[in-house]
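Worked example

This section walks through a single chain of length 365. The input is the sequence exactly as stored; nothing has been trimmed or padded.
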Amino acid sequence: MGVVRTDESRRSEIEEFRRMLLSCSAAVLKVTTEDDSNHRRVTAANRNEHAVDQKLVCVTSGVSFLGIAIVKQLLIRGYAVRIIVDNQEDIVRLREIENTGEIEGSTRATTNNNLIGVVVAKFDDRRSLIEAFDGCCAVFHTTAFIDPSGLSGYSKSMAEIEARAAENVAEACAATPSVRNYVLTSSLLACIWRDGSNGSLPTVVDHNSWSDESFCSSKKLWYALGKLKAEQVSWRIAKEKGLKLTTICSGLITGPRYFCTNPSSTIAYLKGGKDMYAHGLLATVDVNKLADAHVKVYEEMHKTGGGRYVCFDNVIGSPDEVQRLEQETGVHINTSSHDATFRFELSNRKLDRLMSQTHRCMNVC
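Given that input, the structure is written out below as tokens.
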């Protein structure tokens, strides 16, 4: 996430969003733009309808593949969702879906908790974010945005853009009275990149581990730097403003059609892949598991108030696994000089405990 979207990837994501809508038989899409005459009336109505049961939540970049997966998990659990997009092209295509009648049959049976609202807001415009968040009890920020410079790769300047976007979202959450909880999608890369030349680093890498900003800069690991700075500024604002925050540090996102439509983010993540593999830190996570984790940790916030989690479901541990990943991503990872004796151990025990507790509760209930 957080990279330039090509026309092809945008079309693919919109098509994936349409499929998600069709799979959720009781979902209704409502597209709202700033120039709609009823925009403020609709926003106020949503606030009044959902303030009591706290079922209206906001997902930024909700038509990205991770955003779509999160929206689907929220709908399954009975939430109403307001999606933020930041460009007119997405709005035009979503209006086409709204007007086709493909999901009209489900409209009659729907309730307020099955509503999907779509609004436009800019990540560099804090006021527009506050207006978009108004009436929502929680915000999921998946950190996907369009680079206004039109850069094709993830550069140092994009790391700064991502950090500023996260800062604006966190400030907007803190300034919006209805928003009680904020869930930020971070990255495992914000945990693993540290200078281990003196051999003093702990062998376990978990939710307490942080990458080193100077190390990321010196190695030109700009994607890792962007995720690190975005998470750091979010935690600073949360502590200063009393905002409940949870961050999820995910491995490389995988899933059907993900790599072919998100080549830039995959390439950016895998910069340094050779060292990640050598140290046992190259991990992946299925997009649907990651989306499920987002909703589970959000619901846990009502009890704990927030926290940091590491999320992955597979550590690449053999040349055969590397080869399969290379075939899927088209990115070469040199493993010729490394064996499978890893220096570090990745741990997501904190998240595993939460997920297992949730499943046990569901089985008992």
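What to look for: Residues 204 and 244 are 27 Å apart (CA to CA).
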